[in-house]
Design goal:
Largest sheet: 7 strands, mixed
Order of helices and strands: HHHEHEHEHEHEEEHHHEHEHEEHEH
Bound molecules: pyridoxal-5'-phosphate
Number of helices: 14
Radius of gyration: 22 Å
Oligomer: single chain
Shape: globular
Number of strands: 12
Strand order of the largest sheet: 1-7-6-5-4-2-3
């Protein structure tokens, strides 16, 4: 089901109410959770009409269009409409996790022999999907040396096209945890050039927008075909659910919904309901986490035991990454890394002294989380590859939350004393 948001409304307004019509639920101001696995048909004719609507795109019959919750359910419809509106897409598909969403894209849009160009570093789960799982099915991943440069992207494209077609260009910007930036418009331009060499087959450009979210960056507006978001993070925002979303043109998103039906990787009704509620406060949370992050990053940058931070707001205004970031995003997010003088010993001493910041992987929750990537999120990544992307033994990643910034800074200050 696709609904167009009313013209002229701001995203903050759409985040509150769009996608739910109280008249569909006896006037309830807030949507019910449709905790049912299946839907009763009022007649055999209705059942046939509902299936014609789902499978052939016929009009949804009067009296409801749901069949079975793996195919679709009202809470999923609501969250998909709202996410599409915020991502400025025609449609969205929501999955049971970020990885479920990304896996579906690769299964739908790649075939054996296809290459995937990707920015680097790329989220560990995606790295494993491309290099361990899909390479076993003949998919050929190619890293892009510098995703800010059209020349570097084209070099990777030419190397990939030497042995077969390119099916996808997968960009993560900013990247986890180094905050490397990729130029979305350049990726779109390269996809167009590739199409000329591939008899018109244009690779889809996907952008993982998990780190900034729809209130800071809308990749579709910069030429991406699909925006992918681990909704588990900022969009969910309370570290209490897992979900993934894909937004884009209806013609590109609809096949993902059909694939999701057979994979069974839809988001369940309760998590969809929680997520819809979370989106209402996403702009407020994004702004507060962003201002807290600037204060925490400033404290860390000036601390004598810290050698550097990846907070993107500190990048030189004239640097290519900053220029691209300012072109395609309106803020700097609130997840970044910082590096201590020393190595694992110093990092562990700091972590074990913290009282307010919580030590956990993941990011984007209301609480501030911190982890040591080399021994947690990137445990399975060989040291040489970690070092190459700037994840050293002294690097810590922090996802700044919504606490009072003075408490966060005081906690870090006392823990740094122990280093
Ligand atoms: C950038 C990025 N993309 C995708 C994912 C995968 O999301 P999920 O854990 O919901 O599968 C993550 C998870 O950390 C991530 O950080």
């Amino acid at each position: 089901m696709t609904h167009t948001p009313p013209a002229g409304l701001h995203p903050e307004t759409l985040a509150i109410g769009f996608g739910y019509d109280p008249s569909s639920a006896q006037g309830a101001a807030k949507p019910p959770v449709y905790l049912t696995s299946t839907y009763v048909y009022p007649s055999a004719e209705h059942a046939k009409a509902v299936h014609a609507a789902y499978f052939d795109g016929a009009p949804v019959p009067e009296g409801g269009g749901y069949i079975y919750s793996r195919l679709n359910h009202p809470n999923l419809d609501m969250i998909e409409q709202r996410l599409a509106a915020l991502d400025k897409g025609e449609d969205a598909a929501v999955f049971s996790s970020g990885m479920a969403a990304i896996s579906a894209i690769t299964m739908q849009y790649l075939r054996p022999g296809d290459a995937v160009l990707h920015s680097q570093p790329i989220y560990g789960g995606v790295d494993s999907l491309l290099y361990n799982t899909l390479s076993g099915f003949g998919v050929r991943p190619f890293p892009i040396a510098d995703a800010l440069s059209e020349d570097a992207m084209w070099t990777a494209a030419e190397a990939a096209m030497a042995d077969g077609p390119i099916g996808l260009i997968m960009i993560e910007t900013p990247a986890n945890p180094t905050a490397s930036i990729a130029d979305i418009a350049v990726a779109a331009a390269v996809a167009k050039r590739v199409a000329e060499k591939q008899n018109g087959r244009r690779p889809l450009v996907t952008v993982d927008n998990t780190f900034l979210g729809p209130f800071v960056q809308t990749p579709l507006a910069h030429g991406a075909d699909l925006t992918v978001t681990a909704l588990t993070k900022y969009c969910g925002g309370h570290s209490d659910l897992l979900a993934g979303g894909v937004s884009g043109a209806k013609a590109v998103v609809e096949p993902l919904k059909k694939l999701r039906m057979v994979l069974g990787s839809h988001l369940d009704p309760f998590s969809s309901w929680l997520l819809l509620r979370s989106l209402e406060t996403l702009p407020l949370r994004t702004a507060r986490a962003g201002s807290n992050a600037l204060l925490v990053a400033t404290f860390l940058r000036e601390h004598p035991k810290v050698t550097g931070t990846t907070y993107i707001g500190f990048a030189d205004n004239a640097s290519p990454s900053r220029q691209v970031l300012d072109k395609q995003a309106t803020g700097y997010g609130s997840t970044f890394s910082f590096t201590l003088k020393g190595g694992e010993g110093e990092a562990f001493r700091l972590l074990n002294k913290l009282r307010v910041l919580r030590m956990a992987v993941s990011l984007g929750g209301s609480e501030t989380l911190i982890c040591h990537p080399a021994t947690t999120t990137h445990y399975a990544t060989p040291k040489a590859r970690r070092d190459a992307v700037g994840i050293t033994d002294g690097t810590l990643r922090v996802s700044v939350g919504l606490e009072h910034p003075d408490d966060l800074i005081a906690d870090l200050a006392q823990a740094l004393e122990a280093v």
